[in-house]
């Protein structure tokens, strides 16, 4: 920023004003740039399956009109592309819904172990296909947090599905629940999803929760990914005043850990009165 002289030619109050303006505008411009990037990325991601669909429709109307075998194959591919578009739109809508309510903290008591077990059951088929054993270990006492059941289910679906998709070569996925204290002494529920797959090298770690960021776009697409899963997890965690921590090294698997304030710790007024 070049300091601007005031009317008398001195770099005085106007310089200060100029600096303040610069500071105020820069975050707004950053948010604006992020929005523009997001719309461009989302459009590109939606255009890819749409282009494939248009191409196959043309072929089916023309050269493949009477080719029954090709028709079946193309219809399967078209179905997969249509599903991909639907998944993308679902994830985009979920993200904007969660962002809209970012300032409202969900307050329903949710016990973590049953939702994790439910997600593991739902993903049993994928685990079997990948030849992966999923283990769950948890303390005896229930871990209850204040939250939104559907959103927390979404968090574990994304983390466990990713461990199965990207960490499959390790043949083992471990989910560990525990309780801990945070730096301010509040009690937290901790859930860690660990896989023993190829892991993620350091330079990618800080960017993994960005929308559409993928270490390998081709692999993500082949796995039916949208690149929005971890962005969703991050936003849900923020809304729940929780945290997501990712630890990984190339060749050493990955651990995704979520920490959520425990329900009892959130209600000191109730405890005081009881
Ligand atoms: P996607 O829809 O591509 O799975 P995510 O936001 O869930 O999107 O994840 C972003 C990227 O992070 C993935 O494309 C993958 O490259 C990487 N990733 C996520 N989980 C793991 C994991 N357990 N092991 C290795 N890489 C992972």
UniProtKB/TrEMBL annotation:
Protein name as annotated: histidine kinase
Subcellular location: Cell membrane
Catalytic activity: ATP + protein L-histidine = ADP + protein N-phospho-L-histidine
GO CC aspect terms: plasma membrane
Gene Ontology MF, one: ATP binding
Signal peptide location: none
Principal location class: membrane
GO biological process, one term: cellular response to phosphate starvation
Species: Pseudorhodoplanes sinuspersici
First-level EC class: transferase
EC id: 2.7.13.3
UniProt KW keywords: ATP-binding, Cell membrane, Kinase, Membrane, Nucleotide-binding, Phosphoprotein, Transferase, Two-component regulatory system
């Amino acid at each position: 920023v070049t300091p601007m002289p005031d009317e008398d030619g001195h770099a005085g109050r106007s310089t200060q004003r100029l600096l303040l303006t610069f500071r105020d505008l820069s975050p707004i411009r950053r948010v604006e740039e992020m929005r523009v990037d997001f719309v461009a990325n989302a459009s590109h991601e939606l255009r890819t399956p749409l282009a494939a669909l248009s191409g196959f429709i043309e072929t089916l109307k023309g050269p493949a009109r009477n080719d029954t075998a090709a028709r079946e194959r193309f219809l399967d591919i078209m179905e997969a592309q249509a599903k991909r578009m639907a998944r993308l739109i679902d994830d985009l809508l979920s993200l904007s819904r969660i962002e809209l309510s970012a300032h409202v903290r969900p307050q329903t008591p949710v016990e973590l172990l049953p939702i994790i077990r439910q997600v593991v059951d739902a993903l049993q088929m994928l685990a079997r296909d990948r030849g992966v054993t999923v283990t769950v270990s948890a303390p005896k006492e229930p871990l209850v947090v204040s939250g939104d059941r559907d959103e927390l289910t979404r968090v574990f679906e994304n983390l466990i599905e990713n461990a199965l998709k990207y960490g499959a070569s390790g043949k083992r996925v471990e989910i560990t629940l525990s309780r801990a204290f945070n730096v301010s002494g509040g009690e937290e529920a901790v859930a860690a999803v660990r896989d023993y797959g190829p892991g993620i090298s350091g330079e990618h770690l800080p960017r993994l929760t960005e929308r559409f960021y993928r270490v390998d776009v081709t692999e993500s697409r082949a796995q039916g990914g949208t690149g929005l899963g971890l962005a969703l997890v991050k936003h849900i965690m923020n809304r729940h005043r929780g945290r997501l921590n990712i630890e990984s090294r190339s060749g050493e698997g990955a651990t995704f850990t979520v920490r959520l304030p425990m329900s009892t710790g959130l209600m000191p007024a109730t405890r005081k009165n009881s």
